[in-house]
Amino acid sequence: MKNHVATLIIVSVLTVAVVITRQKLHAQNTGSRPTDKTGAMIANTTGAGPNKQWYSIFVTNIPPGYRDWRLISVAREEGTLDDIRAILGNDIAVKAYREGTLPFPEGAIIARIAWSYDASEENNKTFGKAQSFVAGAPKNGVQFMVKDSKKYAETGGWGYAHFNDGKPAETSFMQSCFPCHHAIKSRDDVFTRYAP
Amino acid sequence: MKIKSRSAREVIMVSLGILVTIAFAAQDRSALKAPNGVAFSEFQGYESWQTVAPSVTDNGIKSILANPVMIQAYKDGIPGNGKPFPDGSKIVKIEWKKKKNDDSPYSVEVPDTLKSVSFIEKDSKRFPDTGGWGYAQFNYDAASATLKPFGDDSSFAMKCYKCHTIVKEKDFIFTAYGPR
User: Fold this and answer.
1) Which residue of chain A is at minimal alpha-carbon distance from B62?
2) Rounded to a whole number, what is the distance in Å from the CA of B111 to chain A's nearest CA?
3) A3 to chain B: nearest residue by CA?
4) Chain A residue numbers touching B49 (CB-CB < 8 A)
5) Closest Cα of chain B to A43: distance in Å?
6) CA-to-CA separations, B66 to A184, B118, B148, in angstroms, rounded
7) What share of chain B is helix, strand, coil (3-state, %, to 5)?
8) How many A-B residue pairs are in contact by the CB < 8 A criterion?
9) What is the ipTM for the molecules in this complex?
10) Which residue in B has a C-alpha nearest to residue A2's C-alpha?
11) Torsion, CA B90, CA B80, CA B83, CA A71, rounded to 10
12) Can you give the residue ranges of every domain in chain A?
């Protein structure tokens, strides 16, 4: 009889534990799930230019609405580029990041936007010393990686893009993207890890 | 049903222990509240908000995100046009420690572990003493992987408010929207 009671208690506690775990996981998932509706709505409001033709092996039109995509991470790039940047993803890319899906699925697009690395006078006033740096004017163009295994088979399934003031960068410049990114083949040629 | 062998009982007890650990290891953040009553749950889904701009300090790297109401206000020219952000505006500052990205061929600083998550929300009626903005900060404790509310009592919000008063003409918000 004693054993029956013990078994009953153990089973009850196990059940409760499982339920709590499931609920928590569910709550976390729903809390961070990208909403396609919002994404699609916003994508239409912040359009890029008209749909130009995609040519050669590089991406040559700017994916619309990228400024409103979700955050993947931020970075401070030193050296000659000297900027502060945000890496954003479309819904497919962000979902893949959050679920740890590798390689990235077809249609995933990762965007890199950057600004000049400026000391903030307001913030320095607050802290009493020059220690805070913020995003200044747009800098170093915008870049994209677009996953399309067939179209961009020659460059690891990713189409690379760089735009300066809306114009695609020269072919010679674009040819440097893939060899460098391919060094991180274990993560499907993508350097940035998910931060939030 | 009888648990016959000692080893079977041990297996059950160990499983139980593991399950309980899993259940409580993931902190239930929905119960978190700052001392002024501003709850973490009021900002649910903040990870999916849109980016206002990143920033960097000596020992951290941050991203500031805002909810759709506030992003729209930014795009409409607030606060540069002299208008205040509308009620319902919410903004979050996610701050991480920073580290060098070892994978990168260039010198790049990227987020390390989380440091804190700070929120401000606009509700003119609810927060009349702090410029209409309600403040909350949750500091991340890496050892226990939990967030803890910052501030011993509700007066912490006055500290936030006083400092943010430097940018009163920008409706108390430091971070400008980074156009791209």
Assistant:
1) A74
2) 7
3) B2
4) 70
5) 12
6) 32, 12, 22
7) 30, 30, 40
8) 159
9) 0.84
10) B2
11) -20
12) 48-187
Using CA atoms in the order B149, B48, A146, A148, what is the torsion angle rounded to 10 degrees?
110
Entry pTM: 0.78
Q: Which of A6, A27, A131 lies nearest to residue B30, judging by beta carbons? A: A27
- How far apart, in whole angstroms, are the C-alpha atoms of residue A52 and residue A91? 23
Using an 8 Å CB-CB cutoff, list chain A residues near B100: none
Which of B12, B30, B94 shows the shortest C-beta gap to A196? B94
**B179 close to A (CB below 8 A):** yes
What's at B50, amino acid-wise? Q
Would B3 be classed as within a structural domain?
A: no
CATH number of A48-187: 3.50.70.20
CATH at residue B109: 3.50.70.20
Residue B8 lies in a domain: no
Q: Is residue B55 part of a domain?
A: yes
As for how many domains chain B has, the answer is 1
pLDDT in tens, chain B (180 residues): 555 566 777 766 766 666 655 555 678 998 999 999 999 999 999 999 999 999 999 899 999 999 999 999 999 999 999 999 999 999 999 999 999 998 888 899 999 999 999 999 999 999 999 999 999 999 999 999 999 999 999 999 999 999 999 999 999 999 999 998
